[in-house]
Design a protein that fits this description.
The protein is α+β, with helices and mostly antiparallel strands. The relative contact order is 0.08.
């Protein structure tokens, strides 16, 4: 018996020894001590692949997608050998526990922890920490894996990371220079923070506009982890931040979620205290805006947390901060490794309770609103369906004729007629709390000092009429109808104009050299009424296209675009098709400014819009090259939000004005309007702030930050009046709900067209300080100012902000193709 025990002991020891030997440490694999260089993305993935090949019974590597620049996106599943054998069962048990999957779970004693690294590319220490965390979990902390499944995304944003790392590796001194003024601590535009299209992926979880977010959500919804951590970096002088988060907490966050993130924070503090490391909690980083890597998981029942290490893109391999401390990459990744392991430790210690409380979150019986009902433009409804499907949120069609409740359009109780095309989204589904968050008319704020915007309600963003009902609205399963249309030869065809889908159709028509007209006035033909902006295609205009009807039919089917036939150019009510009020659309040549002076986020949103949504060509011109650019090659120049003081010097401003007078159009967004407001030759003016009797200098120091909130608008929704007879507003009604991102206010144009403006200061959703509100009445939202034959078009509110405000996008398309359309280029 003793000999048998000895043989078993030797076998066990040998197995453990071989196991520890088969896994290379990051240092051994990379060929340098981790943290002494930045690892490129492919090296990180190679390390994860190496580990998964060495211990396939404990690590499974899965590719879940690829970036726009074709870099692979991977997840690593890490657990004990027994858990890995039952990985699918563990996943299914978790979904059954929430009601997302039918059936009763066979066990709910395994915790699921998801660790996401490097969502911001130049916050690069976390991906290095991901490698070390994987290694330590498999060697030093194997005990934690007995009842946890750890999902590691080593790099959420590979394109941004490699943009930063490649720049730094080719720029840094040898050895690295700790002087803050050294070039290696100053990234060039646009920096490594965003992804390929320069989007902030940490603000894209709810909207999933980017391929990285969309593909990640598919896997996230398959797993629905109990804990999700998003690893970040902040300024070089900031200590480490970890949970618990700051107020405001969204009201759906449970007491358990609040308490457990505090428990996790205290566990981190234990390790940080032992090393004498500085940290802070409960400040700055709140849990409110739903599209973050901490809030989105929280609203899906998890303990969602952000961890912030000092450093950011400025820190490089090492930098001397303002406190005289040399902050190194080694130190930064070590802190992230400790909090990652501490998180898994807390999950392991509380695995059963995590499962129990996770299940409780999905009980939605106490939610005030039982159903949200929306109706309106079918294309907008289809876009909403697409978003809900990304989150696997169920919806149905209304089966009644009228609903009552909170009316989004009026901001008070009311009713709305519905039909079988109207959508109903109930909250008595597992993801009912996320439904509440996305659809609620006005999210409750416990504190006005927030980290991000405070309004995002889906009905406003998608331009839909809506009712929030406190009783369950009658509904039935959605029935989709297939598109069926075959065009017959006739005089011409008319297509509606009220959605981005219509704009995509127009873009495709122009790409295939169709000549398209649009009407500036309503008209009737063949018993049908057509609104301003309607697209018109005639045989007479398109004799150059062989098989005109067949090719048009193909494009119409591709875009599911219904075309109405007209038999004659003689309309029942004017204008006739040959009227000067029905104009040919120029195949516009569009340019955009990029580079220093422009906001990379604003530029990226426009770039993404043209390439991925409108699918229309866009030429990018670097601001450094504006002085020598031949603008006569373009019809439209878009200026993203930015600071153009050095760009629009005297010579460049003169050049721009001359180009506009000759027929060019400038479309300026948000901060770009500062370049023209109050300048010679422009009607655009800042609105002077109304006097305030209080003296801010008497406000106590401790109260200054909160007092300053009175002057802020943090992403609030207002109802603007719209001149829908102006070409910029074709396809819109006489009102538009706008998302105002700041308190900048411009007076109504004295010379020009006030296409959309605020005539009152009622806030429909979100926070706006009283002093900021006092200055908003009778201010510009969108406008056009003529100069010679051309125009300056002003977007005070950025309709492409984060690409989720679907209802505002047509204003931009109208500005490009319809506004001041006086000439057609052959």
């Amino acid at each position: 018996m003793r000999n048998l025990f000895f043989i078993f002991f030797i076998a066990l020891t040998t197995h453990s020894f071989l196991f520890s030997q088969t896994i290379q440490s990051p240092d051994e694999f990379l060929g340098y001590d981790i943290g002494t260089q930045f690892s490129r993305h492919h090296q990180v993935i190679d390390y994860f692949q190496s580990v998964s090949e060495a211990v396939p019974d404990r690590v499974k590597l899965e590719q879940y997608g690829a970036t726009y620049e074709r870099r692979p996106l991977y997840l690593a599943y890490v657990s004990s050998e027994d858990n890995m054998k039952n990985l699918e069962t563990i996943r299914e048990n978790n979904l059954k526990n929430t009601g997302l999957l039918d059936g009763t779970p066979s066990s709910t004693d395994v915790a699921i922890v998801w660790l996401s690294y490097n969502v911001h590319g130049n916050e690069a220490s976390s991906t290095e920490a991901a490698m070390l965390t994987l290694y330590k979990l498999l060697t030093e902390r194997k005990d934690l894996l007995e009842n946890t499944v750890v999902i590691i995304d080593p790099c959420v944003n590979p394109d941004g990371r490699d943009r930063y790392v490649n720049w730094y590796n080719e720029t840094t001194s040898q050895p690295y220079d700790i002087d803050q003024q050294a070039s290696e601590h100053s990234e060039p535009w646009p920096g490594g923070r965003p992804n390929h299209y320069l989007f902030d992926l940490n603000r894209d979880w709810a909207w999933a506009t980017q391929v990285e977010s969309e593909t990640r959500l598919k896997v996230y919804n398959k797993w629905m982890p109990h804990i999700h951590v998003d690893f970040h970096e902040q300024g070089i002088n900031e200590p480490y931040y970890f949970a618990p988060a700051a107020e405001p907490f969204h009201e759906i966050i449970s007491d358990w979620q609040r308490d457990f993130q505090t428990q996790i924070g205290k566990n981190h503090a234990k390790y940080f205290d032992a090393e004498g490391w500085l940290f802070f909690t409960r400040e700055r980083f709140d849990l409110f805006y739903p599209s973050y890597g901490d809030t989105y998981p929280t609203y899906m029942g998890a303990i969602g947390m952000t961890y912030e290490q000092g450093g950011h893109g400025m820190a490089g391999l090492g930098i001397l901060n303002d406190e005289g401390h040399v902050l190194t990459l080694v130190e930064r990744l070590t802190h992230h490794t400790v909090t990652g392991l501490s998180t898994v430790e807390m999950a392991s210690k509380n695995a059963k309770e995590l499962n129990t409380e996770f299940a409780k979150f999905f009980d939605n019986s106490d939610l005030k609103y039982k159903s949200y009902v929306v109706k309106g433009n079918q294309d907008h409804l289809n876009s909403l369906k697409t978003l809900l499907n990304k989150h696997e949120i169920a919806f149905e069609n209304a089966s009644g004729t009228k609903v009552s409740g909170y009316n989004y359009r009026t901001g008070q109780q009311g009713s709305m007629s519905v039909d079988k095309k109207s959508l109903v989204v109930h909250t008595n589904q597992p993801k009912g709390k996320m439904v509440k968050v996305l659809f609620e008319p006005n999210a409750k704020l416990s504190d006005s000092l927030t980290y991000d915007i405070t309004a995002w309600s889906i009905p406003y963003a998608y331009g839909l009429e809506a009712i929030a009902s406190t009783s369950r609205v009658s509904s039935s399963k959605v029935t989709e109808q297939s598109f069926n249309q075959t065009l017959q030869k006739t005089y011409g065809y008319v297509s509606k104009w009220n959605s981005l889908e219509d704009a995509q159709f127009l873009g495709d028509l122009l790409k295939h050299d169709f000549k398209v007209r649009f009407t500036e006035k309503p008209f009737s033909s063949n018993g049908s009424d057509f609104e301003r902006g309607s697209l018109i295609l005639t045989h007479g205009d398109n004799k150059h296209i062989e098989d005109f009807v067949g090719k048009l039919n193909t494009l119409a089917k591709k875009h599911e675009q219904v075309l109405t036939s007209i038999n004659s150019g003689f309309s029942q009510s004017t204008p006739d098709i040959g009227s000067p009020d029905i104009k040919l659309i120029n195949k516009q040549k569009v340019a955009i400014l990029s580079g220093d002076g422009t906001s990379s986020l604003s530029y990226g949103a426009i770039w993404h819009f043209f390439e991925q949504q409108l699918k229309y060509p866009l030429t990018s011109i670097n601001t450094d090259d504006l002085g020598r650019t031949n603008l006569s090659k373009y019809n439209v120049l878009i200026m993203p939000s930015g600071y153009y003081g050095s760009v629009l010097n005297e010579n460049n401003m003169k050049k721009l004005k001359e180009w506009v007078r000759a027929g060019g159009k400038v479309i300026a967004f948000d901060g770009a309007l500062r370049s023209f407001a109050g300048k010679d030759g422009f009607s655009l003016k800042y609105k002077d702030s109304e006097g305030n009797s209080s003296n801010d200098n008497l406000t106590p120091y401790a109260d200054r930050e909160r007092e300053y909130a009175n002057y802020l608008i943090t992403g609030a929704i207002f109802k603007a009046k719209v001149d829908h007879t102006h070409p910029m507003a074709f396809g819109y009604k006489d009102h538009y709900f706008t998302l105002k991102l700041g308190s900048s206010a411009y007076s109504l144009l004295n010379s020009g067209y006030n296409v959309a403006h605020l005539d009152n200061t009622k806030v429909f959703s979100g926070f706006a300080g009283k002093n900021a509100l006092s200055n908003l009445s009778n201010t510009l939202v969108f406008g056009e100012e003529r100069m010679g034959s051309g125009s300056f078009i002003y977007f005070v509110d950025n309709t492409l902000f984060r690409s989720f405000w679907e209802n505002g996008k047509l204003f931009l398309v109208n500005s490009i193709f319809f506004v001041n359309n006086n000439a057609y280029e052959l």
